[in-house]
């Protein structure tokens, strides 16, 4: 959930105004784009997502992203395409969420081939929740409107309550993590090892992500590259990418370099997701009718 009142959307930046040919740091030795192109609008946020807060590329359905609303809306998740077309609407049952802030898709559990959709009920603006949780359900084999039961998987932090809006899922291992939202940095990364239904586990702090010279803070979304060697982090004004060649896990990824990458102008920017093939990313935002931006390889 955003902390600031939104402003009027700005025009899309020109090629000379976004981190591109002259400003971008080329990505060397990591899978994916060497450099990103100028953001291109592909569509708009659909009416069913007036508070779009999370995006994640489907594993089973090419070209589809799973998306959801912020708190105060019905407990639902939507399958959309990058133009904002709604392909399916899933009504979720089995839990009462408080503040769902992000979504990720990957192995249902470490070592499983089956894929699940994970929703992160981790928002805590006033940092008062004793425990937070993820919700899990198998990724549907077909895209159709349906009712789906979720499994709650609760956890606590070892150092007190935190607000968070960013969920991380390593597609290689099925390992899950949460990046907190704070004014002090881009957030602290916690691993959720052993997360499962019916048991409250304690997260493990792995480290802190900081922009150079404290340039940015208040992370609103994250997406881990299929290779596990890049991590996108969204804030209200920028998109960052953490890169580490050969990173085998979240701990080694945190040792990488953090660079700014292109971001199209959006009010209340709260969603980012790599494409399923890792060749670029999609940017979403709260408010119906706002642009959806595709950022591909240059």
Description:
It is a single chain. The longest helix has 4 residues, at 250-253. A 5-stranded mixed beta sheet has the order 2-3-4-5-9, with no helix packed on it. A 5-stranded mixed beta sheet has the order 6-7-8-10-14, with no helix packed on it. Strands 1-22-21-20 form a 4-stranded antiparallel beta sheet, with no helix packed on it. It has one helix spanning 250-253; strands at residues 40-44, 52-57, 65-69, 76-80, 86-93, 100-107, 115-121, 132-138, 146-149, 151-156, 164-169, 176-180, 187-191, 201-202, 204-209, 221-224, 230-234, 239-243, 257-261, 269-274, 281-285, 291-295. The chain is globular. With 298 residues, the protein is mostly beta strands.
Question: How do the strands and helices of this protein lay out in sequence?
Answer:
Blueprint: E1 40-44, E2 52-57, E3 65-69, E4 76-80, E5 86-93, E6 100-107, E7 115-121, E8 132-138, E9 146-149, E10 151-156, E11 164-169, E12 176-180, E13 187-191, E14 201-202, E15 204-209, E16 221-224, E17 230-234, E18 239-243, H1 250-253, E19 257-261, E20 269-274, E21 281-285, E22 291-295
Parallel strand pairs: 5-9, 10-14
Antiparallel strand pairs: 1-22, 2-3, 3-4, 4-5, 6-7, 7-8, 8-10, 11-12, 12-13, 13-15, 16-17, 17-18, 18-19, 20-21, 21-22
